[in-house]
Amino acid sequence: MPALASHRRIRSRSTKPSSAVGFTTAALAGVTLLSTQSATAAPSDPKPSVEEVQKKVDDLYRQAGSATQEYNQAKEATAEKRREVDTLLDQAAARAEKLNESRRALGNYAAAQYRTGALTPTAALLFADSPQAYFDQTQLMDRMTDQQRTAVSDYETERAAAAKQRAQATKRLESLTDSQQALRISKQKVQAKLAEARTLLSKLTAEEKARLAAIEREKEEEARRRAEAKAEAEARARAEAEAEAEAEAERQRESAEPPPETGTGTGTGTGTDDGTYAARADKVLAFARAQIGKPYVWGATGPSSYDCSGLTQAAWKAAGVDLPRTTWDQVKVGQRVATADLLPGDLVFFYDDISHVGIYIGDGKMIHAPKPGDNVREESIYYMPIYGSIRPV
Known about the structure:
Blueprint: H1 17-40, H2 50-116, H3 121-127, H4 131-202, H5 206-255, H6 274-290, H7 308-317, H8 327-330, E1 335-337, E2 347-350, E3 356-362, E4 365-368, E5 377-380, E6 386-391
Antiparallel strand pairs: 1-6, 2-3, 2-6, 3-4, 4-5
Helix pairs in contact: 2-4, 2-5, 6-7
């Protein structure tokens, strides 16, 4: 019997080098690609200079000051709307009580009608004790019908008024919610700006911090020199005014005429009774000086801490003058004054966005609450760019 041919497939001796070669090629390609990407990648941003950091931090503090005024404005609006809502809710409660009284009156009439309304006039006459009693009861019911109509009218009036009051309260509540949201947003803005400034400062080395302090000293020195120049100008103006007053007094003595009444102010401003203004300004400055050393806290109005407009508002309040809460509103009150004509007590505003304010004390200086981390202090008005000045009264 012939042998059957084998059907087994002969295995190849391949060691599969193509797979290993493929992996190695891919790896090399990956390394080459990474090397190429590293070579062509944009370099990291260079570290900012100390001068750039100082400028950025100053700008962030200014923005935080502006955001603080937004916060103060939103806080005032929220408080006002809350008072409106409380008033409307009190009125609505009183209106609801009147509505309940009208409802109770209608209920009494309805009960009386139920008790007597089932009988026809003929039956009522038959069951009456006498014809006279029937007519007396009929007359009473007629009068009751008039009162009932009045009660219905009163009820409808009170119900409509209560509905209107509820609608007003709902609208005010919605407005209050919007104001509260604006308050939260303003608060977040302030916190974000201050956090960014702190982060920038925290990245400075000891040497860079020393350089930053030197830049600040240079800035303060320049502001001090400008304040001294203004102090000299004010001193000359006072001396000239005193000399002119003495000369006028001498002329009056020679002509034997009584001298004209003059104010006791020391400035060159116009349009103000200097004596009255000086008396108020003395109270303002006395209050402001008593706050020196207290910390700046944004949104604060005293007595333990202040922001810039909180300090000016509280100081003038001590002199019996009510100022608005924000720098944006304070700058609109009183009389505008040129820097050359400033008197002690005047308010000086800074930056184009009017985000800061201080109280002028004379000789080119002011008392103000500077910024977070600082305390209320005296400083040259030339430390920051001046926007303008006002005399509150």
